[in-house]
Fold this protein.
Amino acid sequence: MPSVLRDLRRDAIAIFQRAVRRVDPERAVMEALHLDGDRLAVSGNRIPIDARRSIHILAIGKASMGMSRGALRLLRPDSGLLVAQEIPSPPPNGFQVVRASHPLPDEGSLKAGEAAMRLIDRLGPGDLLLVLLSGGASALFEATLVPLDDLRTATVELLRGGLGIRDVNEVRKGLSKVKGGRLAERASARGAVVVGLILSDIVGNPIDDIGSGPTALHSSRGERAKSILERHRLWDSMPATVQRLLRSAAESSEVRSSVPSGAVYNVIVADNGQACEAAREEAKRRGYASHVLTTAMEGEARHVGPVVVSQALRWNSAARSVAVIAGGETTVTVRGGGRGGRNQEVALSAARLLEGRPAVLLACGTDGADGNTEAAGAIVDGRTMARASALGLNPEEFLDNNDAYSFFRPLRDLVVTGPTGTNVADLVLFLAHRPGRDRREWLSRSSGRGRASRLASSRSDSAHPEGRGVSVHSR
């Protein structure tokens, strides 16, 4: 079995790499934008461009550099602002570049928010503001009345509390002067046209929640934040400045400006579904019966791992080798003091179910980051438990301490990619060779060689019906 596992692990890494390449942000923007005479064609929308007016680009998030490169292949903007965790080399010509922090906002995040508001306040009627938005923007970009220390304290509590990202962002929107459509509203009030191109890192592609929806005019603005925090027993841990703003948001006292039709456009240019489909295609090319179990994976990470494995083990029992793909984003309720991330916990929670099987499971973030570590995620297989036992490692103890990183590091089973430059949430890949099958035939077919947990939206390269419409709830 060791040689089988080596092949499966190698394929899992290659399939993940292919999926990440498919959601390359430069390519995504180039596919979405086209010039048609004096109009900008954006996924079916044709937006007039006045040659006498100016074009400005605001790029925020983990994919900001790649998205900017794609836009600059078509447009010559009069100015640009790029907000990222790392300063690109070389930076885009003519752009102001601001380095900011993720997942906790920092001084750079506030500087980015101020710079964006200055850019918007220079806009005039007929100007075009192209907003290139990707995951990580919520932390990287902020303008708020809340002191930074209080904002960081609130963010830590939110991230440790096991909230889903939409609930986290509802709180963020209640504290912000740019989130929840406020940025687009400010730009349109000056007569500008706003086009948002969005790389989605949230299940279901909700425009009002990706990056906390700065261009989503009809987004909520924190009205539910107080009740969310109370439900999760986090209200009392919020600083007084945060509580004061969220009480005001709960009363819905904010008056919204009227925005004319055709002033704001938002388009999803890449998402987790595209990455999952690319993974399925690559697995099929390598000789696997391949299947997308879900693109809506959510829930507590330690519960999701076993759910994915148990359903993958049942899929297409007639196939000699199978690849089952799940996409989405899980959560972790932090109770321990260790290191790790949601993908490492998904993998660790699945290890015991794989024991003794010719199977592997890889769980990684498409952005190359997972929790408070340098890893993108981790990989486990049928020998992980035996290898861990030989080192005296008990997976349950590491899960209880939220210390998956310390479990995987001595096993050399962390997956470290570095920043990928994109972000469409997470991928979980399950690959298996069925015992008793002819492995020689399997190898010859591999031409490429050498919360509630909601599992739905299934696709497959076969007509096998199992797995379609699955709904599994774990808490």
About this structure: The longest strand covers residues 289-297. The chain has two domains: 2-21+272-460, 24-270. Residues 437-475 have pLDDT under 50 and may be disordered.
